[in-house]
Structure to design on (472 residues):
C-alpha cells in the first residue's frame, strides 16, 4: 500500500467499525424477545456499538492528521 | 393520567415476549463474524502504518518526514490497542449471548415439561369433577332491552359492562356500539359475568343457575360448558347479525367462557371474535385461536386465576397483567384478601391503569381496540344493550 493511500485505508476501516456497530445494534433490537435478560443483552450490544463508533472516530481523526501531514 | 394500582408494580407479560433461541444464537454468530472481519481490517491498517513508519525511518529524512513517522507510530499504537480491546469486547459479547441463548433454551425446556405435567394433572382433575355434575338442558330467555349508554372507553369501560344493573345470575349482556355519525352498528361487546353458584357436585340441586362451579371445572378441563354451547344462539336471539365483530369480556368464570367461546367452531362460523378480555380467570391452560387478541388481568392475591395451576401462555397477541400485592400486611386475613382481590372493582382499577400505561405491547393492544371502536378516548355515539338470560332446565342423560 502506498503512503498516500493509507488515510483512505484508515477511513475504510473506520467505516467498517461503524457498520459493525450499526449492524449488531439493528440485529439486537429487531429481535422479538422482551425480558429483563434480553434487555440487558441489548444494553451490552449497545455499549459495544458505542465502543466501535468511538474507535471509528479516533481512526477518522488519525486519517485526517496523516492526510494533512502528507499534504504539507 | 392514572397511577398504578396499589402494591408492587404491575407486570405485563406475553405479547411479543417470545425468546427466540435461534435469534440469540444468530446474533452471537454475527458478533463473532464481525470480530473476525474487524481484526483482519485492523491488521491491514497496522501493517500499512508500520511499513510506512519503517520506510520513513530508514530514509532518515527531513523534519517533515519525522512528523509523519510520529503519526504512523501513533497509528500503529492505536491499531494495537483497538484490536485487543475490540477483540476482547466482542468475544465477551458473543459468549454472553450464547450463554443467554443456552439459558433460555433450558428455561423453555423446563417450562414445557412443567406445563405438560401440570396441564395433564389439573385438566384431568377438573374434567373428572365436572363430570360428576348432572347434565341439564339450557333455556335461552327472551331478550330484554337495556337502557342505552355511551360506548365503553377502553379496557376499564369494557369491564364496567360487567357491572350492569339489575344483575341476574345467567345474564349475557350484548352491547352494540354505534359510533357517532355511523349508520350501522359496529362491534358488539359481550359481557360474561362470573360464577354465581359454588355448590359442589353432591349439593347441586335443580336451581336454574348456569354459572356453576361445575361449569368452571368443565372449562378448566377444556370441555365446552353449557353456556359456551348456548352462546351462539343467545347472541342470535339478542339480534346480533352474522359476521359481526365480537369483543368478549368476562370476569372469573366469564373469562373462561369467553376464552373457550372464542375458539368454539359454532361461534366462529357465525361471528368474528377480535378480542377476549379476562379478569381474574384461570385461562392458563386455554389457547386462543390465531388472530384473536387477548388480555388477562390477574391480581397477585386472587386465588381464582391460580386454579389452572400454571402461568398464562404468551405468544403473539396475548398479554397478561399481574398486579396488586400478594399480602396487604403481616396480619391480614388470607381468605378476606383473596375475596377482595377477586372483586371486579380491583380489576377495573387495573384496567384503568392499563388504559394509559406506557408499555409497547399494551399500546399495541389499545390500538387494536381503537380500531374496533373501543379506544380509551371518547368517540361519541351510543351502546345499545340487549340482555339474554341463560338458565339450566331439565336433566338429560350424561354424555358417554
Amino acid at each position: 500500500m502506498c503512503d498516500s493511500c493509507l488515510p483512505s485505508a484508515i477511513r475504510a476501516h473506520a467505516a467498517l467499525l461503524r457498520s459493525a456497530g450499526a449492524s449488531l445494534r439493528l440485529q439486537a433490537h429487531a429481535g422479538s424477545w422482551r425480558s429483563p435478560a434480553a434487555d440487558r443483552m441489548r444494553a451490552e450490544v449497545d455499549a459495544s456499538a458505542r465502543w466501535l463508533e468511538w474507535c471509528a472516530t479516533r481512526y477518522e481523526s488519525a486519517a485526517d492528521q496523516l492526510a494533512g501531514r502528507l499534504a504539507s | 393520567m392514572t397511577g398504578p394500582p396499589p402494591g408492587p408494580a404491575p407486570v405485563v407479560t406475553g405479547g411479543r415476549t417470545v425468546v427466540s433461541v435461534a435469534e440469540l444464537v444468530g446474533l452471537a454468530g454475527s458478533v463473532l463474524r464481525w470480530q473476525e472481519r474487524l481484526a483482519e481490517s485492523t491488521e491491514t491498517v497496522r501493517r500499512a502504518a508500520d511499513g510506512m513508519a519503517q520506510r520513513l525511518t530508514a530514509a532518515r529524512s527531513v523534519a517533515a518526514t519525522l512528523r509523519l513517522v510520529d503519526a504512523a507510530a501513533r497509528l500503529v499504537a492505536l491499531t494495537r490497542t483497538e484490536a485487543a480491546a475490540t477483540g476482547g469486547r466482542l468475544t465477551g459479547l458473543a459468549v454472553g449471548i450464547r450463554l443467554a441463548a443456552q439459558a433460555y433454551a433450558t428455561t423453555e425446556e423446563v417450562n414445557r415439561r412443567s406445563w405438560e405435567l401440570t396441564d395433564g394433572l389439573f385438566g384431568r382433575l377438573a374434567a373428572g369433577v365436572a363430570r360428576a355434575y348432572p347434565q341439564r338442558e339450557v333455556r335461552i330467555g327472551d331478550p330484554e332491552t337495556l337502557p342505552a349508554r355511551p360506548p365503553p372507553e377502553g379496557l376499564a369501560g369494557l369491564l364496567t359492562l360487567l357491572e350492569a344493573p339489575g344483575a341476574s345470575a345467567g345474564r349475557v349482556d350484548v352491547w352494540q356500539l354505534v359510533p357517532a355519525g355511523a349508520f350501522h352498528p359496529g362491534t358488539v361487546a359481550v359481557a360474561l359475568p362470573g360464577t354465581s353458584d359454588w355448590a359442589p357436585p353432591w349439593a347441586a340441586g335443580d336451581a336454574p343457575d348456569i354459572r356453576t362451579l361445575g361449569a368452571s371445572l368443565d372449562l378448566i378441563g377444556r370441555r365446552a360448558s353449557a353456556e359456551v354451547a348456548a352462546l351462539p344462539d343467545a347472541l342470535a336471539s339478542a339480534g346480533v347479525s352474522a359476521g359481526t365483530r365480537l369483543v368478549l369480556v368476562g370476569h372469573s368464570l366469564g373469562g373462561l367462557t369467553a376464552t373457550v367461546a372464542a375458539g368454539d367452531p359454532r361461534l366462529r362460523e357465525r361471528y368474528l371474535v377480535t378480542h377476549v378480555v379476562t379478569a381474574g380467570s384461570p385461562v392458563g391452560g386455554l389457547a386462543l385461536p390465531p388472530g384473536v387478541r387477548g388480555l388477562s388481568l390477574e391480581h397477585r392475591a386472587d386465588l381464582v386465576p391460580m386454579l389452572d395451576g400454571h402461568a398464562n401462555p404468551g405468544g403473539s397477541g396475548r398479554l397478561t397483567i399481574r398486579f396488586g400485592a400478594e399480602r396487604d400486611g403481616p396480619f391480614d386475613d388470607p381468605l378476606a384478601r383473596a375475596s377482595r382481590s377477586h372483586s371486579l372493582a380491583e380489576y377495573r382499577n387495573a384496567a384503568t391503569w392499563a388504559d394509559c400505561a406506557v408499555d409497547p405491547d399494551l399500546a399495541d393492544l389499545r390500538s387494536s381496540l381503537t380500531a374496533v371502536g373501543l379506544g380509551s378516548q371518547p368517540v361519541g355515539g351510543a351502546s345499545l344493550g340487549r340482555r339474554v338470560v341463560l338458565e339450566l332446565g331439565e336433566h338429560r342423560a350424561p354424555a358417554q
